[in-house]
Design a protein that fits this description.
By secondary structure, the protein is mainly alpha-helical. The chain is built from 3 helices and 2 strands; from the N terminus they run ααββα. Helices cover 37% and strands 7% of the residues. Strand 1 and strand 2 form a beta hairpin. Helix 2 crosses helix 3. It is globular, with a radius of gyration of 12 Å. The two termini are 18 Å apart.
Amino acid sequence: VGMGTPGIAAGARETVKAILEYIEEARLTGIVVRQTGNVGLDSWEPIVQVQVGEAAPVSYGKVSAAVAREIMRRHVQGGQVAAEYVIPK
């Protein structure tokens, strides 16, 4: 989760809180949540990158708390990328 100044200003604290709460509520294990600084895509903040196993990482942009929960449900638990939130390459 991008926690640089732009990310925090865009709501990254609420995003990471939602992710941690989801993990706890769903009793998920084996998940590592890391905070990073600014990733250089300020207009996409808050940014969350998800990597499941050896799959390529997926970067999601404009991740509100509600979107974070959806990404956790669909991508982390369900294995399906939430394409509508992916930052285009």
